[in-house]
Structure formats: structure tokens, C-alpha cells
Amino acid sequence: MDENIVWHNYAISKSQRSEQKKHKPAILWFTGFSGSGKSTVANALESALNQLGVHTYLLDGDNVRHGLCKDLGFTDADRVENIRRVGETAKLMVDAGLVVLTAFISPFQSERDMVRNLVEDGEFIEVFLDTPLDVCETRDPKGLYKKARAGEIKHFTGIDSDYQIPTSPEIKIDTSKNTLDQSVQELVAYLKQQQIIG
């Protein structure tokens, strides 16, 4: 880093921003195969948290690739950079006192751990959507598995690109067994148990 770039400390701290919002900041990092339910569950959870007065923001994989990460493809190197950018963005939002929900396949354990290490202990909650690949492929909401099987999409997770199963996620949900409401209730209960929200 350039020696002329200096970190500035400001008068208002993360704890003050958190106190103002009346809840703790955190990142709920949804990971899993395409079609596992990441965006659906994260969206429903954000709606539930909004009803509870929790200050949130949802970072979605597809949406981020329309702006912040629109210059990136799907090679392993681009996937790493995609998660690095999202992680740094989520870190800023945690500093602002928000509960950040992120919906990204994020196939590599090292990248998920990198984001975990950006924030304080207890602020990173890995939510593994442990929905079987064959169920995800049956859903195929965007028709991506069909294209990947036909060779029209390269580097597709679960087909010709690896997905590393989370080693110790805080929460594991199989959306082929849980209803959407059950998944949301489980997540809200966890946040209350951890005293992130009241």
C-alpha cells in the first residue's frame, strides 16, 4: 500500500452506530449451489427483519454483478475477486451498524474464511443452504444447469467447477425439507439467541 495513504479515525464509532440502531451488526453469509434458495431465503429473512425494525441490506450475487463486479467473469480468479469485493463492502456495512445479508454461491472455503476474518468474532454467520445438487438442478430457476450440461456455460459450480462444502457453518438449512417460513423462523431465532437482535 502507498505510504501516502493514511487511515483516518472518525468521531462516530461502530458501537455508537449500532447503539443508535438498537441491534448489533452482523453478516449473514448465505452459501450453496445455484437454486439452493439463497436469494429466496435471504429476501424473506430481510422482510422479516424489517418488520422487527432491524436495519438491513441485502447483497445479491446477480445484482452485484450488474455494478460493483460487472467486469468479472466466472473463472476461479474472478470468483475470488468477486467475493473479496463483496466482503469489503459487507465490512463497511457492518461498520455502519447494519445486519448484512449476502446471497453468493461463494464456492471456496478460503474466500468465505477471508470475509469472516474481516469482521469481529460473532459478526460473521455462515448460512449453508445444504440443498442437494439434484434438487437444485431440478429447480433450475434460471435454466443455468441445462445450459451448463449442454456446454453453453463454463465454470458452473457443481457441474465443471468445484464447490467446497462449509466445514463449520453456524447454520445449515436444507430447503428441500424446510418451508421458507421455517427457514426464516430458524434464522430469526438464531439471531435472537446470539443477541444480535432483540
From TrEMBL:
Catalytic residues at 106 (phosphoserine intermediate)
Q: Name one GO molecular function term.
A: adenylylsulfate kinase activity
Report the pathway entry: Sulfur metabolism; hydrogen sulfide biosynthesis; sulfite from sulfate: step 2/3
Q: Which SUPFAM superfamilies match?
A: P-loop containing nucleoside triphosphate hydrolases (SSF52540)
Record flagged with keyword ATP-binding: yes
Amino-acid positions noted as binding ATP in the UniProt annotation, renumbered to this chain:
32-39
**UniProt cross-references to InterPro entries, sorted A to Z:** APS, APS_kinase_dom, P-loop_NTPase
The protein's superkingdom reads: Bacteria
Which keywords annotate this record?
ATP-binding, Kinase, Nucleotide-binding, Phosphoprotein, Transferase
> Reaction catalysed by this chain?
adenosine 5'-phosphosulfate + ATP = 3'-phosphoadenylyl sulfate + ADP + H(+)
EC number(s) stated in the UniProt entry for this protein: 2.7.1.25
Question: Where is the APS kinase domain positioned along the sequence?
Answer: 25-174
Q: Which NCBIfam families has this protein been placed in?
A: apsK, PRK03846.1
Instruction: Tell me the function of this protein.
Output: Catalyzes the synthesis of activated sulfate.
Record's PANTHER family? Answer: ADENYLYL-SULFATE KINASE 1, CHLOROPLASTIC, BIFUNCTIONAL 3'-PHOSPHOADENOSINE 5'-PHOSPHOSULFATE SYNTHASE
- Family classification: Belongs to the APS kinase family.
Specify the protein name: Adenylyl-sulfate kinase
Please name the source species.
Pseudoalteromonas lipolytica
